[in-house]
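User: what does the whole thing look like in 3D?
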Amino acid sequence: MKEEFFIKRINSKHIGDDGAFIDGKVYASDSFFEDIHFKREWFELDEISYKASLVNLSDLIVMNAKPKYALIDIGFPKSLSLHEIKLLASGFNKAAKEFGYEIIGGDTIKNEKIAISMTFIGESKRPVFRKAKLNEYVAFTGDLGSVDRDLKTLLRGGKIPKTSKFITPKLRDEFFYKASKYITSACDISDGLFKELERISNISNVGYEFLKKIPKNMGCSGEEYEILFTFPKRNLSIISNLAKLTKTKITVFAVTKRGKYKSICKENHF
Amino acid sequence: MKEEFFIKRINSKHIGDDGAFIDGKVYASDSFFEDIHFKREWFELDEISYKASLVNLSDLIVMNAKPKYALIDIGFPKSLSLHEIKLLASGFNKAAKEFGYEIIGGDTIKNEKIAISMTFIGESKRPVFRKAKLNEYVAFTGDLGSVDRDLKTLLRGGKIPKTSKFITPKLRDEFFYKASKYITSACDISDGLFKELERISNISNVGYEFLKKIPKNMGCSGEEYEILFTFPKRNLSIISNLAKLTKTKITVFAVTKRGKYKSICKENHF
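Assistant: Here's the predicted 3D structure for the full assembly of 540 residues, as structure tokens:
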């Protein structure tokens, strides 16, 4: 994959997690581009800027970092009306208010298409990385599969419900901030469960013994923004209780073991 | 201007300077997009990533901040060869090595055109803002006008020298880091001297008495990445000495006074 080739050419020891943890701070950056991540007709303008914020926040949450500051680099076409620009700004402001961070800068340029890149600075006393241990339970939050199904519907020209997680990811901040101290490793499911399992396998030198069969339509569904995480078996009851307390569905589906795991999904990337 | 309308709709008290200064750190973000800021045929690929880095570093330098970390969000076409991707990465690495910062993350996506957004985190014990005082000297570094002239040559299909500041901005870090303690306000000249004078006028409630006439081809030339700065008159000799020491040309051309200043240049932005 060409993007992985580029990343390997960049000299950095921090790249590999959802964000970089340095001196108590977590730095994370994600892009959200028209015709790459979304089509204009699928979203209201405030939904675009809100989702751009959420996909970035997702990276911070899975590292157990609280967002403090954000910078927004945005390109948008001259043809947008002032009302439309107001909508675009309101999605950014809505997320900042809800998650309690401040927008401190960025850059605004004219561009044919809407192109958003955000950088977040968060704080964490106890960051969670992608390094799992042997003989741990492996679990994910929520239900998987709906995002890929909804995306396919949109690509066929169909309609999807306003509540679709493709439009508005459902972040699991309440559960994860409480549960993180009982969790060994985590990442958000942006490229599909199986692909994220492969990443954790590579970083941690573990394979998986599946306790439940995960069908391909669930395991290969990207942009779910649910959380994949591993934890010591002894923490099962406390984690189950925290899930209940925060009304978060979790599915324990595997145990880490010696070995290596490779995703069977077709790569979405180039 | 629509970009200013967008910025006004974003709730932030930090926006307005080249970067945001918070707790000893400076955060700055800038985009560098194909067909907005450059055409592919004008640059080698490593020159593109190197310039993208320099225009960001420029923001940190004028605030007297030393760059520590950078995040790179980059989109590039699938059609780039591995050799071309290597070149692209090498420009980022070159700037990081020269200016002593670490690339800690980012996002890589497929995009029709090259689209780079970078965020820098710097450190400053004594940041310089855009707020000038009355009766101060106003000066700029280097020579102005060549960038606009070279850009026009390129737009006409002509050739420009490899040493053009349009290809590789000449940052004044050595001079500015030494001189900053004698300087009241500064900004980099990204949108032309006259436009930057207008910004400092608005922020500082000052006008200018010109000691030298600045022709329009100098005052309206954007992307110069020279530094506009003001300082107390008593600091003239020390600043002149530091300029000589660092082989940096400076031109003292005005004095701040009561009033308001408006740029006479045509707006480049939308």
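In plain terms: The beta strands of chain B are 20-22, 25-33, 66-76, 102-110, 115-123, 136-141, 185-188, 207-210, 227-232, 250-257. Chain B is about 30% helix and 25% strand.
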